[in-house]
# Entry
Amino acid sequence: MLVTLLVSCASQPSPPAGQLQVLSTAQGKPLTGAACVVSNLSGSWNVQTPATVMVGDPNGDLRVVCEHPGYRNSEVIYRMSGGGVSNSGTRVNVGVGGGSFGSASGVGVSMGIGFPLGTVRQRYPGQLTVDLTPLSDAR
# Structure
């Protein structure tokens, strides 16, 4: 069971390190064509949503500022917690489940055990979505 769990965790695809997909929405619906500036301490990149940009290894907070005609400018900041390496590591939870006690009691017992797989290098998220608010009509 543990081998199956570890294999299934390892086989899930993750975006390439340093690649960021930038999306924009308005009132929960996709909004295309927003002009955005993605920046960190390494530099800045101008993109139009939806877009994919290579920001490289984490270097400070990641900031995305977007504008679109008819909408207020919006900003999302992804703050890096601590330095470049996290000592918390990736955690895998292993569950050991039990059946019921007695014929009709329906009581179950389970025990979760977490253990670190080692240190992992911090990364930016693979995707950031910036929500823009429509300008109100002047009456």
